[in-house]
Write a structure and sequence with these properties.
The chain is 49% helix and 17% strand. It is an alpha/beta fold and 637 residues long. Helix 3 packs antiparallel against helix 6 and helix 20 crosses helix 22 (535-549).
Length: 637
């Protein structure tokens, strides 16, 4: 914004106009005239200056200094009072000044004068000539040419000059405000222009006849056409079957929000959310509208990011050195390079989703979403709508406006169908159609929506046997079974158990603030001997338990779950001496734990004077449990 403290008169009024005004004023009134800025510097050429002042008085250093001093005092008086000032110079001539003021700040002064009201005495003239160091004869001859006017005429000329100064002040103020307003308009335009061109949505500006007047860069990308090919065309031509709905914006002044539309373009069918608003002028009259096109892919991408539909695991995160797991990793890595469907088979807890995420992250679709669906966890009656979406009113309780399905959310990325073997037969038919045609239709709708997804499925069942039993469609099985990947159970790669256990122990220990430095070798022996029905997931649960119960920096046998350290397992895997040692260690651990619990109960009862309810509450157990423990530890009631 223009600062008032720095603006100058010549910034607001052209010098040619000031010069022309000054010349005409001087000629018409019969006085000399000059305009100076607020610093006392002349910004115009003198008008009608007398020979006496120009060639006699001001050619003298003393005379020039006195003239400038008089002018400064006259200007100061005019600025101080805000009115025209009439004053007499050192030579006896009458001058006047009028200030040019902008919002209380003086921008300059208009001077007029070099007239007399009476002829000065010859003695006074000779004295001045002598002080100025000029020829007395020339001084007397020149001063006789100065016109003599009445004081009334001088006052009248000063008032005219003041009115002109006020007019210049007003014009200067209007010019300043106009500059400020223009700057604000330009700034607002630049802001809107930058916003318009940096929006991630397509934007079309149309007039009141539906003719496109402006589009942004995203609109050009959506339609694969330059702006010049879109401008001055009817929105009907661009929107096709959706035009009647959009016409309401500029025909009925009706706004709409997030309306799902499909537009056929050179790049294929454009699926997007559209919003529209009418544009009114300053009198409330319709002047056009604005149409927003938000590609549904970007909407889904945002939803997936916020909902966590992203793959985080990579092949580097898969821990293991056994030949079985290395073979699986190698095959999965090859599968990631292609676009074929992948079927991952393995027992529960082997890490099937970890492999699926790693395949996605190493594929060309790594920047797209990764949407995981557990087909066995969705109720039978909801699985179709969950995968393929539905429209408003498709069934009782359907969400207003409908809802896209998981396949649409996965567009441009990967959909992971876990427990695919649990899908009902009626869904298998619809799933087969989507895989073959790469298109879907939402429940309760007839619009065909193209879907660009890669399908990775996982199951803990033998799908070939399920096909033989009639529980799984053979044609769907072959569609999914393009690349088959088997994940070995943990018991078949026991050499990886120490790596997994130590990795999880270190990672979770650091996260929980309980780092553990050592592991008793007997612990690893027991872990490798255990059959692990829950696979890696069960091992993770064991590590969590160990970190929770350990009170030192070493993991010992007694910290493991009972199922792992039971005697039956010990006697099979370990020598008798080592087995007896472990049993004694376990028994000692149990005794110590029981004694600690007994001491805690006794101490709480003592503090509460035998209050059973208080003691049970402090221990976090029921009264009946407390009574049972008191009987077990022979604690008197």
């Amino acid at each position: 914004m223009t600062k008032l403290s720095t603006v100058k008169l010549q910034d607001l009024v052209t010098l040619s106009f000031l010069q022309e005004f000054q010349d005409n004023f001087a000629l018409s009134v019969g006085v000399a005239s000059l305009i100076e800025d607020n610093l006392g510097q002349a910004i115009t050429c003198p008008s009608c200056f007398s020979t006496f002042c120009r060639e006699i008085v001001r050619t003298s250093d003393v005379g020039l200094k006195r003239c400038l001093g008089n002018d400064m005092r006259g200007a100061a008086k005019a600025m101080q009072t805000g009115k025209p000032a009439v004053y007499q110079c050192h030579a006896g001539l009458i001058d006047f000044a009028a200030p040019i003021i902008l919002n209380g700040r003086v921008l300059g002064t208009i001077f007029g004068g070099q007239v007399l009201t009476a002829r000065p005495s010859e003695e006074h003239c000779r004295k001045n000539a002598q002080e100025l160091g000029v020829s007395t004869d020339k001084y007397l001859a020149a001063i006789k040419e100065i016109p003599i006017v009445s004081r009334e005429k001088i006052q009248s000329a000063a008032k005219v000059l003041f009115l002109v100064a006020n007019t210049l002040s007003k014009n200067a103020y209007q010019t300043l405000k106009l500059k400020e307003n223009n700057r604000e308009i330009i700034l607002a335009y630049n802001r809107l222009e930058n916003t318009f061109n940096t929006m991630s949505d397509g934007v079309l500006i149309i007039d009141d006849h539906g003719i496109i007047k402006q589009v942004n860069r995203i609109t050009e990308e959506l339609f694969d056409r330059p702006g010049s090919a879109l401008l001055n065309k009817s929105v009907k031509e661009l929107m096709g079957s959706q035009a009647p709905f959009i016409e309401k914006v500029y025909k009925e002044q009706t706004a709409y929000n997030d309306f799902e539309i499909f537009i056929d373009t050179k790049l294929g069918r454009l699926h997007c959310l559209s919003s529209g608003r009418p544009i009114l002028d300053d009198e409330g009259m319709l002047s056009g509208g604005i149409i927003i096109l938000r590609p549904i892919k970007r909407v889904h991408k945002l939803i997936n990011r916020l909902s966590g539909a992203q793959a985080t695991f990579r092949f580097d995160n898969i821990i293991g050195q056994s030949p079985a797991i290395l073979t699986s990793i190698q095959l999965a890595s090859r599968a990631a390079a292609g676009m074929s469907n992948v079927l991952i088979e393995g027992e529960s807890g082997t890490g099937k989703e970890v492999f699926a995420q790693a395949i996605h992250n190493q594929s060309a679709r790594c920047k797209g979403p990764f949407v995981a669906v557990n087909c066995g966890a969705i109720p039978r009656e909801l699985i179709v709508s969950e995968l393929f979406g539905y429209t408003e009113g498709a069934f009782t309780g359907a969400k207003r406006g409908g809802r896209p399905g998981k396949f649409e959310f996965a567009a441009g990325g990967t959909i992971f169908l876990d427990e695919i073997g649990d899908t009902p037969l009626e869904l298998q038919v619809a799933l087969l159609r989507v895989i073959q045609e790469r298109k879907l239709t939402r429940m309760g709708d007839n619009k065909v929506i193209p879907v660009d997804v890669r399908i990775i499925c996982a199951t803990n069942k033998n799908l070939a046997q399920e096909v033989a039993k009639g529980n799984f469609r053979q044609d769907l099985y072959y569609r999914l079974h393009v690349i088959s990947l088997k994940i070995p159970p943990l018991r078949e790669r026991s050499e990886d158990i120490p790596l997994l256990f130590n990795y999880m122990l270190h990672t979770m220990g650091c996260e929980w603030g309980k780092p553990i430095k050592k592991v008793d070798p007997a612990v690893i022996t027991l872990l490798q001997q255990y059959h692990w029905p829950g696979n890696v997931r069960e091992l993770q649960n064991v590590v969590e338990r160990v970190i929770s119960v350990v009170n030192e920096d070493t993991v010992r046998v007694e910290h493991l779950p009972e199922a792992i350290i039971q005697p039956a397992a010990l006697t099979i895997a370990l020598p008798p001496a080592r087995t007896n040692e472990l049993l004694r260690s376990r028994e000692m651990f149990r005794q110590n734990r029981s004694e600690q619990e007994r001491q805690q109960i006794v101490e709480l009862l003592r503090k509460s004077n035998g209050n059973i309810s208080y003691t049970a509450k402090q221990l976090g157990i029921a009264r009946s449990t407390l009574y049972r423990k008191m009987s077990q530890y022979n604690i008197p009631n």
